[in-house]
Amino acid sequence: MSEQNGEIERIVAKLGEKIKAVRTEKGWSLKALSNRSGISAAAIHKIESNGITPTITTMMKISDALGKKISNFVEEEPGEKDVCLINSNERKPVFTFKKGLDLQGISAKQYGEFIMTAAYATVEVGASSGKKSMSYRGEELVYCLQGKMRFEVKKKIYDLSPGDSLHFRTHLEHKWENLGEIPARLLWVVSIEAS
Fold it and tell me: Would you say 151 and 84 are in contact if contact means Cβ atoms under 8 Å apart?
């Protein structure tokens, strides 16, 4: 958990610097960005100097005014990593709201310059994605290393045992559950289409 907090702190510490860099590149004053974003010049100055941490709403307004996506401020710099080696002892946790699901990143930063992301997943016995099905534009590829997993895609059941894989388009409603008697271990690859 402390490793994840350290990563969050590192991202937050760079926010102000990145906002200032984009603003300066455009040749805008604090007042100019204030007029375009609706955020006071004093607040922008504090954010840029790491005096305050912006809320998500404030970040959305600032990034929109600068013509950038929020991901530009929280991910690696564009082109910073075209090749990414992750040693087994350096995997970073991937945050998820799903109980009983532990994800460790085995790919470059999530949804940055690369078009897919991957994780080594451990799914506890009985853990599931929830009663409600999910859908979004993209693809998932799941490879089962250990245990038994059940996926439901467009109301059809797919049971995975070690060595089995499932590849599907995620605009189809889907959900998953560990039906086995031991934690399931999976390689989980996700690609999300840009909207």
Answer: no
